[in-house]
Amino acid sequence: MGYNLWHSSLAIGIVSLVTLSPYVLGILFSNYVDRMVPPVVMIICDVGRMLLSFLLAVLLLSGRSTFVLFIVLVFLLSSFSVFYIPSRTAAVPNFLKKEVVQKTEAIFNVSDFLFLVVGKLFCGFLLGISVSYGLLVLIDSFTFLVSGFCNYFFYKMYVKKVIISKNNTVIKSKNKIFKIFLRQDLKMILASFVILNLSIGGLMENALPTILIKNNPTNYKQWFSILNSSFDIGMLVSNLIFLKIFSKSELNTKLIAIPGVVSLLVIGLFLSPNILKFFLIFSVGGLASWLDVATVVYMQTNLPRESLTSTFTVIGSVSKTLEPISSLIYMGLCLGSNIYVKLISFNLILLILASVSVIAFKNKRGVV
Questions:
Q1: Top-confidence residue, 119 or 347
Q2: How far apart are the first and last CA of the chain?
Q3: How far apart are CA 141 and CA 365, in angstroms?
Q4: CA–CA gap between residue 291 and residue 194 (Å, rounded)
Q5: What is the mean pLDDT of residues 157-182?
Q6: Among candidates 202, 195, 136, which has minimal Cα distance to 334?
Q7: Contact 307, 173 (CB under 8 A)
Q8: Mean per-residue pLDDT, 163-185
């Protein structure tokens, strides 16, 4: 949208930076969110995004939106979004029985993915028939309104089942969020997400397009579209499998080893022919999604409930912050000569770091 409204490549970079910057604030202020009831945070996020989207739609439709004002509104919209998913994820173990937490989280992920795909297709259709960006943002505002109403009813059920059943008290976090991350299991989870996001954060945006252009200058767009879809399909299939088999909520060596396996697959991605790239990128998407769901379920069932929202916010914010860092790294590695050597070397370093994490995890758990 930034490029189409202001016809500047710089606008794309600024909008991306502004969209991601609130996640840094999420790390700093996550501890305060634990003091609120999760559905209340969700409602506040929905109301904030609804009002901001409506204001942005009015400005776009009236032609009065300036780039600075657009950036401010995008920043505020992204700021409300930072705490929505962590609050929803934190509410699940409080509201549902432990044995159905795994299934619920997988259902959320599958539904989020499907609605994202449908939303993109619907948005593309509307743009194809020349619907203005202002009207699209207005539709967004309406969806946030509907979500807010749904979360209001969720809040009423949450109060009845969770708060009233606990003598009308809401557990408030007295722990600093960084103290929570002194736990060995959270250190392992955080290290896993750091390595994983460094490996794949800039893969689809920088490294893979560069490789495809180098090898297939005439039809790279078609191949990139296929590989991008393969990544998304891998994520969806992974969630469906998780939903079907109800994976155990335990932090084991196989789970911690996923970032290292992904780095190894990415190395293979750079060296393989295009037809093999399809299966490799499918596997990368599936493993990344599996790590995401499995660790979320583990934290939902093993961490203190009064610190869940802040914990999910920190991990989510770290992951989002690492995506542009990974993109910058891959962008730098793709400059000049010996591109393959640099890309493979970078992922070899990540593979070594992942291996060290697995060894450290085994030593702490006493696994031979």
A1: 347
A2: 53
A3: 48
A4: 12
A5: 59
A6: 202
A7: yes
A8: 57
Higher pLDDT pick, 218 / 157:
157
Token output for 251:
């932090």
- Whether the CB-CB separation of 317 and 26 falls below 8 Å is answered with yes
What average pLDDT does range 335-346 have in this prediction?
Answer: 88
Q: What is the pLDDT of residue 213?
A: 77
- Locate 12 and state its tokens: 């794309």
CA gap 360, 257 in Å, rounded? 11
pLDDT digits (tens, 9 = 90+) for 226-284: 777 888 888 888 877 776 665 556 778 888 899 999 999 999 988 888 788 889 999 99
* SS3 of residue 274 by DSSP: helix
364 token code pair: 């702490």
Provide the whole-model pTM: 0.74
Q: What is the rounded CA–CA span in Å between residue 109 and residue 234?
A: 13
Total Cβ atoms within 10 A of residue 101: 20
* Nearest residue to 248 (alpha-carbon basis) of 350, 74, 99, 142: 99
